[in-house]
Amino acid sequence: MAEYVLQTEDVAIHYGGVKAVDGVAMTLERGQIRGLIGPNGAGKSTVIDAITGRRRLTRGKVVLGGQDVSALGVVERRQRGLSRSFQRTSIFAQMPVRKQVELASWKMGMADPGADADDVLRELSLHTMSDVIAADLGYGEQRRLDLAIALVGSPTVLLLDEPMAGLSVKESLDLAQHLKALTSRRNVSVLLVEHDMDVVFGISDVVTVFELGRVIAAGSPAEVRSNPRVREAYLGSAA
Ligand SMILES: Nc1ncnc2c1ncn2[C@@H]1O[C@H](COP(=O)(O)OP(=O)(O)OP(=O)(O)O)[C@@H](O)[C@H]1O
């Protein structure tokens, strides 16, 4: 049986009568990228919030590395290897690149925050920009800096909510290549919510499709692309 680094079991989040997420079961294997797609309002961001602990579950379980973490808060889950990127909101605009990655690593309690920072900056090809003030980086580089901050402390799972939003085609491709490399070099598993279908189908090992808070299809990119219900509900001519 495959060993899952992350599992959601019957996860539900209801806001009054709104069933934002309603009984979602998903898994992530070590080093795997799972793309998560679906129309606006399908519940993709809410399920990420459920997994990180930002939203309290109405029902179900989140299991990280075989342990039920449903009762734990955001910080405790991060300490146990569950990380997410925040699309630049975690960046201090006026601080040099390396300093803020080092600070994030120190906050995580790493023994050698400087070495940890150098390691992730190299991984994301930002090591040559260590002394640059974050505000002076290009948009794509800022996105990579955000990813670097999410990578301190060597997380096992990375949750990414629309990391390509606002990037040029070239910047998206570059970020996608870095993500793919991360999974093989660091064995990180990625849950990727993204509207850019070329990216999702290009780098995901498996894809899950949401509609109205539920999973309507899951499988390899090829299986999902050819699923009639998915084509009708979501992909349309883009498939
Ligand atoms: N705090 C909230 N209170 C009430 N309803 C909410 C709240 N947050 C989200 N919702 C509702 O839950 C549903 C799922 O929203 P969610 O943002 O998770 O969808 P999404 O798939 O991420 O959409 P998008 O692709 O547009 O980001 C939507 O109907 C949304 O209006």
From TrEMBL:
UniProt keyword Metal-binding, yes or no: no
UniProt keyword annotation of Nucleotide-binding present: yes
Segments forming domain ABC transporter: 6-237
GO MF, one annotated term: ATP binding
Keywords, alphabetical: ATP-binding, Cell membrane, Membrane, Nucleotide-binding, Transport
Pfam families: ABC_tran (PF00005), BCA_ABC_TP_C (PF12399)
GO (cellular component) term, any one: plasma membrane
Listed InterPro entries: AAA+_ATPase (IPR003593), ABC_AA/LPS_Transport (IPR051120), ABC_transporter-like_ATP-bd (IPR003439), BCA_ABC_TP_C (IPR032823), P-loop_NTPase (IPR027417)
Signal peptide: none
Domain of life: Bacteria
The protein's name: ABC transporter-related protein
Organism in which the protein naturally occurs: Leptothrix cholodnii (strain ATCC 51168 / LMG 8142 / SP-6)
